[in-house]
Amino acid sequence: MEVELKRMLTDLQNLKTSLSDPSHQASIDQIRLCVENLTSLAMAGPTRRTKVKDMSAEVVDSNPYSRLMALQRMGIVDNYERIREFSVAIVGIGGVGSVAAEMLTRCGIGRLLLYDYDTVELANMNRLFFRPEQVGMTKTDAAVQTLSEINPDVVLESFTLNITTVQGFETFIASLKNKSFRQEKEGTGVDLVLSCVDNYEARMVVNQACNELNQTWMESGVSEDAVSGHIQLLIPGETACFACAPPLVVASGVDERTLKRDGVCAASLPTTMGVVAGLLVQNTLKFLLKFGNVSPYLGYNALKDFFPTMAMKPNPQCSNGACLERQKEYMLIKPARDAAAKAKMEEELSTIEIPIHADNEWNISVVDDCDANIVNTQSSDALPEGLVHELPNADVYEQQQPTTEESIENVDDLEDLKRKLEALNAH
Amino acid sequence: MRVSEPKKGTTLRFKTESCREIIILRFLSLGLELRTTMEGWDPTTKSTLTQIPLLTVKAGPRDGAAWTQRLKEEYKALIAYTSMNKSRDNDWFRISAANPEGTRWTGKCWYVHNLLKYEFDLQFDIPVTYPATAPELELPQLDGKTHKMYRGGKICLTVHFKPLWAKNSPRFGIAHALCLGLAPWLAAEIPILVDSGMIKHKDDAVSTSEA
Ligand SMILES: [Zn+2]
What is the pTM of this model? Predict the structure, then answer.
């Protein structure tokens, strides 16, 4: 465009000198001015804002954080600017993860770690975030491109890898442990891990990593028929881990027998994914900035607009070894934690003298935590309405005692067995 | 179809002296449970499945010596399954470990449709959470050719596979995944892919010029 405008200016100049009639001079000058203006506009290109040092609460249209800082002025959040200290890892940059990443970026999160091994395809365009011109790029690269334009203040780190492989898992663990962003932080280098993957296998891997690292995380999922979803908070040792019980999903109410699966793996809708991403990031903001109630489990049934909630205690017989270790640690610190929580509650109660809204027009009451649906994973407690287990429990199965059978097995040599299979394969 | 799962108390337990009897009875107990959860599977798959040895060591690729023990069991099950297929004249795959740790496997699988053999590369990694989760089987040459596939050529398993795997973890291994996951997938998808022209037989060009 710049080249064409330049040529136009030259043409105008030539026209002006070649015209003998001075009456046209004024209009030619006017056109020239116009073209010069267009040129300077074209030269400026898309405007990229520069980084800001401090989040300002000043209400001017050039301040990207004014509406967020207003949350603090209104008393919803104590200290919004703390958001810049937090690191959030997002595993899976698909229909939910990419939107969650954009929301956190616009909120001014300190640092985002993005994990995915996939590339952007045209088939992704029914979902939000990615654009057709990004087809072929890795999802992590495309996300970094868009997010850094939206908010250059956010530190973005991307990892193009598959966390379920042994090698990918090691890199995943090491990246979560890395504390270079905020050295004084206790525990790992991240404040929260968000699982936005689309399959059970990858969720179990995030669960494994977070149990080993004692890292709090949130799970999210959208059903394969695209009409239900859920988010879940997992605190190792304190709440059920992802392996403590078969995964809990929202019953869509569609009969499995009438669901036609021929020719397709999964359906998806930008709406359901957007709703779930919104619920996930809302819970994330409440968890990080300490406001409102952080939901332990929140389901979404799109067909009935029904939102079931519940909480799950860890399973003392969980098949995950790291989960059992975290449970033991939690039991040790539990009495001290309970005492501190009680003292804090009493202190808060003594400061509240009169109810803020005396008339309570909407008949809203505060529900005590004890009344929530808390389900024991090891018992066969009935699940809250609208929730079902996605998979059955593993059968009770006793590991073999070291018997004569095992001693015979130990005689087997791995190389021998390999050769035997290769011999079979050769024919 | 969703079938109510049996109560934990109904799991059969046996006490016998001879190892042989234990094994036979364990198959029987699996068979009983399969009747409640295996609706939707064809009779051949069902009968084949019960004859693949079950595994006992619950160990994944990060578990050191225990993983080596598990690998031995994987080989035994694969040897038994391959031998069985050969004896029944239903040989349909080759698979071997692609690295010394036994965490990556590569090979071939094939399917005969209208008397023509269609062969594909087969590959998968053993996930870090194995055997709680099954390996994700990949047919990279068919990536992008069918909707019954996730990116990277990972086959889309039926609604019946994951519940059965979860229920039988850690007793199912690679051989079971091939029998329950890949075999039914090939039987369902290859005829469609061939008939729709998405895949061509390797000799197709030759045979048409001869004709
Ligand atoms: Zn657990």
Answer: 0.79
